[in-house]
Amino acid sequence: MSRLRAMGFAWAFSEQFEVGFLSEASIGQIQRYCCAFGFVDHVITPTAGLAWIVGEDVIDRYVTRKIEDHTRNGAIRIIARIALNPPQSFANLISFRAPSHRTNRPGALKYDGQLYVRQSQERRETKLSPIPKFELAAELPGTLQWGSGSCLG
Questions:
Q1: N or C: which terminal CB in the chain sees fewer CB atoms within 10 Å?
Q2: What residue ranges do the domains of the chain occupy?
Q3: How far apart are CA 7 and CA 80, in angstroms?
Q4: Are the beta carbons of 59 and 65 closer than 8 angstroms?
Q5: Could you list the pLDDT tens digit for every one of the 153 residues in the chain?
Q6: pTM of the model
Q7: For residues 12 and 123, what is the distance between their CA atoms, to the nearest angstrom?
Q8: Cβ–Cβ under 8 Å, residues 31 and 16
Q9: Do the Cβ atoms of 73 and 79 come closer than 8 Å?
Q10: 88 burial via Cβ count (<10 Å: 0-12, 13-18, 19+)
């Protein structure tokens, strides 16, 4: 679900960049007229972003963890984490963490093949907020008929 949420945010920011209030269309008028804008941007940006994120997760799970499980050398583990997943390493730097930090396992020097386990479902249900984290709704306007006239609203 986190990856689909990321894809939704990527789509929203892509739409804002293409045709939003502060976009190419409104500021530079690049996409002002019909058929001058690329409809492919509305699909490719979020889809390629999702593929990129899933690819990083696959490399981290099947390549980086294999390297970490087969060596106890901390330098090799740190280099593998940073070199095989540079976007995650850069995101860690921006959030003032070590570049080799991963949320699903201990540090590269302490990691011994164990992963952090999620909380059981019973505990997670007790902490649920009644306010959803993200909600999207779409509605069609209704039409009211009054005699010979109608009201759209």
A1: N
A2: 2-113
A3: 27
A4: no
A5: 888 888 888 888 888 877 777 776 667 666 666 665 566 777 888 888 889 889 998 999 899 988 888 888 889 989 999 999 998 899 999 999 999 888 888 877 876 666 655 555 555 555 667 776 777 776 666 666 666 666 655
A6: 0.59
A7: 32
A8: no
A9: no
A10: buried
Radius of gyration of the chain from Cα atoms? 23
Q: At what angle do helices 86-94 and 74-84 cross, to 10 degrees?
A: 100
* Residue 91 to residue 102: CA distance in whole angstroms: 11
